[in-house]
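Anyone up for a design puzzle?
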């Protein structure tokens, strides 16, 4: 099976980060990465979202819910450490996030979820695997794919789930800048992909055609 362009870009990003750490002067060629797809938007209605959460295997359902509540990435959730979660302040720290160190704002539901999760074990990891360390990226993704297939979501990925959470947030807040900060992305161009789903003025105009 050929690798997806997004998978190649993700792996190249990891290699690039390692090289930059070892050789700060290293600069990757401008055409090293595949062009990003800024048109793919996957969005679930409330009933399908509930079915998806119910289909996830026990032990992974909280991880998936946290992704939707915080817009955290797959790796950020898997490798989240207990010491980085500050429930009283309502934040989680991400020292090694994709775009650099960052802070995740925890809403009330996310704080309750993390409080219950941390009280269920004594590991240094928020979501420890049976071996004691964090789950691998492949293992977490595979569990999600199993759930997606179970309810006929096809190739709806964990990355799509993050975009689903962002779309839900935009529909409620109508504040693209605030959601962009929650997503921790720098490109306004990327945020425009959500406009067809969340821009009610455009939708109202379309209805008049």
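Challenge accepted. My sequence:
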């Amino acid at each position: 099976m050929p690798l997806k362009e997004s998978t190649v870009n993700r792996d190249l990003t990891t290699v690039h980060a390692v090289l930059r750490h070892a050789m700060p002067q290293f600069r990757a060629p401008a055409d090293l990465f595949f062009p990003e797809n800024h048109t793919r938007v996957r969005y679930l209605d409330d009933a399908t979202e509930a079915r998806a959460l119910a289909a996830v295997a026990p032990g992974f359902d909280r991880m998936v819910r946290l992704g939707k509540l915080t817009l955290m990435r797959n790796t950020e959730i898997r490798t989240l450490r207990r010491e980085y979660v500050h429930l009283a302040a309502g934040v989680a720290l991400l020292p090694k996030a994709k775009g650099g160190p960052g802070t995740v704002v925890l809403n009330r539901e996310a704080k309750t979820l993390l409080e219950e999760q941390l009280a269920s074990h004594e590991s240094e990891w928020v979501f420890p695997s049976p071996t004691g360390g964090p789950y691998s990226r492949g293992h977490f993704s595979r569990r999600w794919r199993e759930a997606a297939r179970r309810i006929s979501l096809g190739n709806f990925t964990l990355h799509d789930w993050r975009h689903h959470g962002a779309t839900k947030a935009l529909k409620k807040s109508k504040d693209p800048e605030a959601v962009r900060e929650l997503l921790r992305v720098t490109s306004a161009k990327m945020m425009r992909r959500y406009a067809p789903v969340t821009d009610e003025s455009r939708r109202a105009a379309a209805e008049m055609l």
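A detail worth pointing out: The chain has a mean pLDDT of 79.
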